[in-house]
Amino acid sequence: MIRFITGNKHKVEEAEKIFKNFNIELEAIDLGYDELQGTLEDVAKAGAKYATSKLKKSVIVEDAGLFIKALNGFPGTYSSYVQETLGNKGILKLMENVADREAEFRSVIGYCAPNIEPKIFLGRVKGQIALEEKGTLGFAFDPLFYIEEKDKTFGELSTEEKNQFSHRKNSLDSFIKWYSQL
Question: What positions does the entry give for Mg(2+) binding (predicted)?
């Protein structure tokens, strides 16, 4: 049993489908924790450590962000805030007349258990910022994140298609590989 500390139902749905492939049961707990300013790794470590101290059980937390090369990695660790304030239309406005549209989604899983230091697992997926929003699937920046190999945005891919290679899948796979050896 893995306890996933999140209030984001989209993350839970994606993670449940991935964990199911490994016959690992997932329990979602909306505990909430302060997200410090820092890297995704800093946020994941601190969140996992906090949740473990409160629950006295092993947990995972996940922090993710969209990193746009032409914007020096922005929105990065501020992705959630930027999604709430600027939204996809704001990102498209920032990217007007920008030729280099390279971007990547990153996901960091933070794992912690009582009396051990947190461990982190990074997952990435490279793509481009589309010229316009496409698709209604997924959430947040998904309709902007274009995958050349698929010729679609994340917003046009079903959850099953996205779960084959997403940043969250990559970080969860890395975690599961490590966790399965415990």
Answer: 35, 63
